[in-house]
Prior knowledge:
By secondary structure, the chain is an alpha/beta fold. The chain is 35% helix and 23% strand. The protein has ten helices and 15 strands. It has helices spanning 11-23, 37-43, 52-57, 73-82, 97-110, 124-135, 169-185, 251-256, 295-307, 315-334; strands at residues 2-7, 27-33, 48-50, 63-66, 86-89, 114-116, 141-149, 190-196, 207-214, 217-224, 234-238, 241-245, 275-279, 284-287, 338-339. Strands 14-13-12-11-7-10-9-8-15 form a nine-stranded mixed sheet. Helix 4 (73-82) runs parallel beside helix 5 and helix 5 (97-110) runs antiparallel to helix 10. The longest helix is centred in the C-terminal third of the chain and has 20 residues, at 315-334. The N and C termini lie far apart (41 Å).
Amino acid sequence: MIRTGLIGFGLGGTAFHAPLVTAVDGLDLVAVATRKAEAVAASYPNAAVTTPEALIADPDIALVIVSTPNDTHFPLARAALQAGKHVVIDKPFANSVEEARQLIDLAAERGRLVIPFHNRRWDSDFLTVRKLLGSGRLGEVLLFEAHWDRFRPELAQPWKESLAAGSGQLPDLGSHMIDQVLLLFGTPEAISADLAVQRVGGEVDDYFALTLHYGERRAILSSSRLIASPRPRFGIHGREGSFVKFGLDPQEAAVRAGGKVTDSAHGIEDPSIQGVLTLGDGTRETIVSERGDYRRFYAGVAEAIRIGGPPPVRPEDALTGLELIELARRSAGEGRRLGFS
């Protein structure tokens, strides 16, 4: 068993990391660093409640998960690597390209894994998109659109949504969206970006629209916190047809509503939000969504630690994503397309 410690017991810790770790063979959640001792005891009575410093210093813990505010990801991950631990880091992997490079170099120096928690690779909708594109039924893809919208007009926790905290819609949801596009199409030739602060009293971007340029193909990623009627989650258009899909993967909502990741229907989408394939001759077909399963991320983590194989997400992938985020900020500031190499 790989003795595992979790730092942070907010949304990330309670809805993602703790339920997944305890559901995967080979991982044992033995400690949680948090002030929420009662909440941990209620759900994970066998896990000790401790501090980040004590958790990292514990010689029996082999894997440390960092699920804390963005500006603490780098110092906590660095401390854990220096202590000889393997590390999983919530998105964003770091607050800058330079921090990410330092973590990757330190992990290599210490012979440990540092793994970005890009769990959205195992979303039901994204798994469906990958399978459909792999089938070739759309032909050459010329326009890929992904939207991830919310309606949150109020600043619920303003201290979290400040420049000092490394916040913003782009590093938050954008980290996942960029990672998905990189998996599908590789690195783009250039990027054009538009960022905005649209909510009253806002300090960081709560809207973004990115265009990634791949020759004739365009990949457009957009997200807003002021859209009450969400746009399609995916709209993919090729020379042979189009695929349009609404709705989000159900896993997070199910756990937050009290469900278990081991439930028989966990990760299965409601048929009402399954996507529709429309071919050039007008033929329409509902595409049954793949089953989402974030457990596959932590199963990959356990396997990589046990046998030394590749991690489920390479840190270099997160580094490329951060490079694109920094380039997007430049593009938006300068109002022009910028090449990526």
